Amino acid sequence: MPPTVPKARPIAGPATPRDAFHGRGAAIRPDGRFDRWQREDFDDGWEPDPETETPPPPTELIVDTVKSVITFNQSPDIPFDRSINPYKGCEHGCSYCFARPTHSYLGLSPGIDFETKIAYKPDAPERLREELARPGYRPAPLALGINTDGWQPIERKLGLTRRLLEVLAEARHPISIVTKSALIERDLDLLADMAKDNLVQVFFSITTMDKALARAMEPRAATPERRLEALARTAEAGVPVGVLFAPLIPALNDQEMESVVEAAAARGASYAGSVILRLPYELAELFPAWLERHYPGRAAHVMSVLRQMRGGKDYQSEFGKRMRGEGVFADLYARRMKALTERLGLNKDRRALNCAAFRPPSQNPAQGELF
Q1: Which of 14, 51, 53, 260 would give a disulfide with 216, using CB separation of 3.0 to 4.6 Å?
Q2: Residue 179 three-state SS
Q3: The pLDDT of residue 48 is above 90
Q4: CA distances from 279 to 219, 247, 268, 286, 359 (A)
Q5: What is d(CA 232, CA 209) in angstroms, rounded to the nearest whole number?
Q6: Which of 149-158, 174-183, 317-326 has the lowest mean pLDDT?
Q7: What is the DSSP secondary-structure string of 239-306?
Q8: What distance in Å separates the CA atoms of residue 170 and residue 248, rounded to the nearest whole number?
Q9: CA–CA separation, 246 vs 293, rounded Å?
Q10: What local confidence, expressed as pLDDT, does residue 4 receive?
């Protein structure tokens, strides 16, 4: 049996804001940066009526048809040059999600729309099969569900990520996964099979062991304890696993780095890393608003330390700085993680994923092979 999850040192509990939607991360709907009109809230003098307040918005699905599903990048900050994201938007509702601003490209708000209006690609597995079968395709590790979680709650109904995994497993294509969902246990049959050929690695994002903080910050994600359980089961299935303490938020969860990584290592994690909070575009408005609603006594301190790591700004987009920041605090966090991983024996045997086993998938899988 795995050891008991260490108790995190509690911080002041989150306030219960009157305007927050139960089970949702954002309570505002700021206009996207591409909208023709920008609206502003104002106080009309009326107090909200509890009997007539707007109920929490339900999740809506939007069909997103595409000609291709593999997105390529040339960023030196990330260890992959291609990715697949079956969903745009994420029901987890994480207040800090760096992907929120992408909803502006859909003409939707990066606020509450991001977690309630989910675009999905029903034909993504078919498009993936076509792309992998092209004569000129050359395999390299592919990141699955990096922008938004491929195992978010709606995946239980749609099974879209599962279908993508089936194509990748058939093609013996190497993949890297990041998730904060326990639903990935459903797909351990495919992942364990791919792990036999060194084709997969899974990282679990765990930001805190404080249940109150997790519920406020990641309202529809699995609890921290449940993520650790899923990590242990994934490791037991023979799949290489790691933990990402991401994002690291100064003066909010930074004191938990050691307890989170230690708990993950005790359950089979072989790798660990962290990423400093990123606030691109509309997130520079959304996250401070979340702080003021839930942790008003800490908001100024959090933003002050963050700006000290970002050259006095809310965010730095330059390569080499956007993930780790700079300055005294950034260096301190990096040294803490290095000392922690060395003490626990992590990040020692990181192997490159296997690209030699790749075989183009069948164009007509239902027909089967003649020979």
Answers
A1: 14
A2: strand
A3: no
A4: 19, 11, 32, 9, 40
A5: 16
A6: 317-326
A7: --EEEEEEEE-TTTTGGGHHHHHHHHHHTT--EEEEEE----TTHHHHHHHHHHHH-TTTHHHHHHHH
A8: 37
A9: 22
A10: 40
C-alpha distances out from residue 72 to 85, 139, 149, Å: 12, 12, 18
For residue 276, the cross-strand partners are: 248
- Sheet bearing 117-120, strands edge to edge: 60-63, 117-120, 87-88
d(CA 293, CA 27): 9
| Per-residue DSSP letter, 358 | -
Domains for the chain: give ranges and CATH numbers: 60-344 (3.20.20.70)
Phi and psi at 212, nearest 5°, equal: -65, -45
The answer to whether residues 124 and 165 touch, using CB atoms and an 8 Å cutoff, is no
Q: What is the pLDDT of residues 294-349, one digit of tens each?
A: 999 999 999 999 999 999 999 999 998 989 999 999 999 999 999 999 999 999 98
**Burial (0-12, 13-18, 19+ Cβ within 10 Å), 16:** exposed
State phi, psi for 83 to the nearest 5 degrees.
-155, 165
